[in-house]
Amino acid sequence: MQNNAWFVGDDQSIAWREAPVPEVGADDVLIDVRAAGVNRPDLLQRMGVYPPPPGASEALGLEVAGTISAIGSAVTRFSIGERVMALVPGGGYAEQCRADQGSVMPLPQTLSFEEGAAFPETAFTVWTNTFEAGGLAHGERLFVHGATSGIGTMAAAIASAMGHEVFGTAGTDSKVKAAEELGFTKVWNYKTEDWSEAMQGHGGVDVALDMVGGDYVPRNLAMLRDGGRHVSIAFQAGLEAQVNIMAIMRKRLTLTGSTLRARPNAEKARLRGAVESSLFPLVSIGKLKPHIGLSLPMSEAEKAHDAMRSGALIGKAVLTR
Amino acid sequence: MQNNAWFVGDDQSIAWREAPVPEVGADDVLIDVRAAGVNRPDLLQRMGVYPPPPGASEALGLEVAGTISAIGSAVTRFSIGERVMALVPGGGYAEQCRADQGSVMPLPQTLSFEEGAAFPETAFTVWTNTFEAGGLAHGERLFVHGATSGIGTMAAAIASAMGHEVFGTAGTDSKVKAAEELGFTKVWNYKTEDWSEAMQGHGGVDVALDMVGGDYVPRNLAMLRDGGRHVSIAFQAGLEAQVNIMAIMRKRLTLTGSTLRARPNAEKARLRGAVESSLFPLVSIGKLKPHIGLSLPMSEAEKAHDAMRSGALIGKAVLTR
Prior knowledge:
Distance between the termini of chain A: 16 Å
Order of helices and strands of chain A: EEEHEEEEHHEHEHEHEHEEHEHEHE
Oligomer: homodimer
Number of helices of chain A: 10
């Protein structure tokens, strides 16, 4: 069986080249990739600042959808030919991708391969950070920066489907409009408006999902209500943040955060189970699906990265075969 | 009935003067004070930076022990003459002190009035921050700055009685020795040792209880294990702290904090119930009691404050009548 995949070169270029078909361990499945999701960490991996964890494929790509082409001896949940989607620690931009069975989900009938490839990374990230770490509870409000990003659009889709008000920021008026059409209650243009002040005037929020870091952190804390939670999932503007301890104490705030990729397989399997039981009911009735902003053939990975860098993308980019 | 109490003057002086006996509302008890606990926030209140919450007595004092001298019409848990200890939002340095019945506890047979007056503030603070907010779990390690403070000695007493290893800092070698005799597993002299490096070399901790703030916060975060929790209860060295978002994400840390005084009565009543059910079993068998470092007559409040400011005090100071 042949395998080709997108690998990162020394000069941050990427190349589609042949590689051994991944070895299938007892708990692994091999997926014949029909679509691969594109994520911001893929750009970081190109830049050399987000290496794959030990044992993972060196090829790019953190999520795929396709059909099972081989299974390991201990695999019980899946059989060959089944339509699936999976979170993977690497190797998604490929013809064949290996996944731990604990990170694989059946592809719901309501999702295409493209939509399936756009689901795992953002759904797992939003679920574990917003609902598990952030504890977003009935009647509470969510705030998400990057409203039109893959994370932002998924957060709004999930939270609005579950009845929450969702607020956020975007960098242009047209993105503000697009985000509000995709489920946000209200979005502010961070280039022209003081979103923190505005949100405070609007009554504040209970959970802030932040991927900006830097001076956004104190501004996020300022708009949190009593008992509010701040969850960091990236730090695009700076990895150091100044926090006011008195505000944390007075409002009894919580700051936390996490990464997804480096978690052990058992933890990903637990999270996958939580996503299936919590979100599949919404997916199966067509109330929740990822928003695809760009779909390109697998050969155009470079173009997909350009689109993500440009900031013009709304929702997710996927590569298809 | 006569009442005298210690009040703060305009020039940060304090004066023992007559005041009306507190009015007893339906849910209040009046306590004939036999001993009042002295706390660091009392010094802040003198300096004008920690005012009593609305409705609380303007007199100093956050905890008392004594006997019930009057009860409101809705009070069911207590009767006149009963020995009690109580957390109060103010008015403890007095002859008569009003308390919401939800914040009052029977004084266990194993505690004197002095010990009872030294119990509520530190026990409530340690319980809610270390075990509730910090979630210190079986087999986990605690770190507490100010090992010989009222909070430090209570934290060590509770956590060591419950089987946890407890680490901390103190400012002199004799205080290090005293703290290790009072239940700490190991204490570092912060003037001569890099406690954060040392603790990391020692395997790290799961929960850090911090009252220092400022540059202690990043050093605390550095010694937290994966999944560790940082709980702020004061900020003696600075209310702004620099935190590393990548470390929070990578180790999945949580930062939180709280104040006790401004919580609503219903929340204090809930916490009082948690303290009674969790800590009274240890108190009643003599395994847990506050460490009294200084006991003075009520007339010597100024001297008690001097002792607290001097940094020489080990454990709690109380004022008795």
